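INFO  loader      accepted 1 record
INFO  loader      residues=307
INFO  predictor   begin
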Amino acid sequence: MSEQPPAHGGAEGRGTALVTGGSRGLGAAIARQLASTGWHTVICGRDRERLTAAVRRGADAGVILHPAQADVTDEKSVAALFEWLAGNAPPLGLCVNNAGSNFSRRLVSVREQPDGPPLLSAHPLEDFERVVTALLTGTFLVGRHAAQTMLATGTPGAIVNISSTVRHGAYGQSAYCAAKSGVEALTRTWATELGEYGIRVSAVAPGVIDGEALRRRSAASERHAAYMADLQRHVPLRRWCDEQDVAEAVAFAASNPSVTGTVLEVDGGGLPARVLPPADRTPKDPTPHPRTAVVAADLPQKAENSA
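INFO  predictor   done
INFO  writer      dumping tokens
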């Protein structure tokens, strides 16, 4: 499963930290941060080439990352991952559930037409299920095995789940918000169940992350770039967080002995659910059309997929 045999013990003997979705983006930043503070850090992902590239980037940054190929949405794959960890790495002390994907979609998209009824496009079930499976089911499967491993070895540790500041609701994010809200529920539930065994469970909720995925989408769409610039003006700090901000919050949650059952917000003060157009903009005709046309859903706008 690993492309290189890991050496036992971190620089400070902190044990093993597993980071799912650790081959790029936020997951890779979290992994580098943990490795730099003494964790024997294992990054998990589905794509072997991306894992290899992440290990190389880690080495360039002066840290050692150990790759493990697995699919967090597949129960057998997750079980095999933890079997491999048991035989090839120090005792598990930290599990970071970061893997996931997102497809932005309104529940029902309405496309106005100048000479006819609006076209209606419904949120596809398969997109909803794909996001929820990656974000929520994946967190459940990996978190369950991590807790079982810590309990079996009698090793107190921590589980840190990556949630989102938009878990309370955001425009065009039915699947993502539902899944991330579920991640928060799992976090608080597990904290109450596992606390007596010395296992802490918390979550970190980033806002918009100023990373490669955001810059790529903004470069590809002037409309997206303009909307995000408008959205940023509604953030109290008037800035996005970056991957390092989130990585440091994860490291804090992992190491502070009194942090459990809570969600750390790393979002510059919060985001509105939607940026509304100016009040002086001419509203649409509220008169309902006698009929509407139902069309197939538009192609989803794919965000960062780190599963």
